[in-house]
Amino acid sequence: MPLLRQLEFISVGQALRLPPPDPATEAVAVPSRGLDVEATAREILRSLGATKLASELRVEWNARLKTCAGRADYRSKLISLNPQLVHNPSEIDRTLLHELAHILAQFRAGRRRILPHGTEWRQACCDLGIADEKCCHNLPFRVSERARRYLYKCPHCQRDFPRVRRIKRAVACLTCCCVHNGGEFDARFRLRLVR
């Protein structure tokens, strides 16, 4: 029998309440202390001529982010920020611009695959005014190490790709695809499970 969320009926005269949301599975609302980060991100995109992207972009605070400061998902047009950034407000803007550069770089590249911190991303960083941006942060977030039980290898360059979970779809070595096939998927470079 499936589990259903039930409403709690409180005594007469009190409001009807749902149980509190589980923060591990849902985005959380973090007070922005006067900073509407989504509106800021949209305004920046409009100033760079990406009006269509600006209208689709969403920014959320996500409690599931533990070790990374932020994450950009171009397909969903979503930027997720770590709620721990609220304790360091100067990092909110920096992280927002970093993730916005990922979204903007992929928007400009269209359907072509690009490297996460490649030349397109660096150009987007320059356009956003953070030309000296690094690909990793040095914020004091808790580090979690999980055993990488699966090892994949590129049949062409022999590079190793350790993974925590099994890869369930066709994935190829991005470096080899960029060098030998213009950034498009090529089955010759599909990762193979070693152990």
What does this structure look like?
There is one protein chain. The chain is an alpha+beta fold. The protein folds into 2 domains: about 25-125, Metalloproteases ("zincins"), catalytic domain (Zincin-like, 2-Layer Sandwich), CATH 3.30.2010; about 150-195, no CATH class. Helices cover about 30% and strands about 15% of the residues. It is built from 5 helices and 7 strands, in the order βααβββααββαβ. A hairpin with a 6-residue loop joins strand 5 (about 150-155) and strand 6 (about 160-165). The protein is globular, with a radius of gyration of 21 Å. The relative contact order is 0.10.
Question: Keywords for this structure?
Answer:
alpha+beta, single chain, 195 residues, 5 helices, Zincin-like, 2 domains, 7 strands
List strands and helices in order, with pairings.
Elements: E1 27-28, H1 37-47, H2 51-56, E2 58-62, E3 70-73, E4 78-81, H3 89-109, H4 119-127, E5 150-153, E6 160-163, H5 174-181, E7 192-193
Parallel strand pairs: 2-4
Antiparallel strand pairs: 1-2, 3-4, 5-6, 5-7
Which fold name fills CATH's third level, the topology of the largest domain? Zincin-like
Largest sheet report:
4 strands, mixed
**Continuous helix count:** 5
Give me the CATH superfamily of the largest domain: Metalloproteases ("zincins"), catalytic domain
Tell me what the CATH architecture of the largest domain is. 2-Layer Sandwich
Uncertain regions spanning at least 5 consecutive residues: 1-34
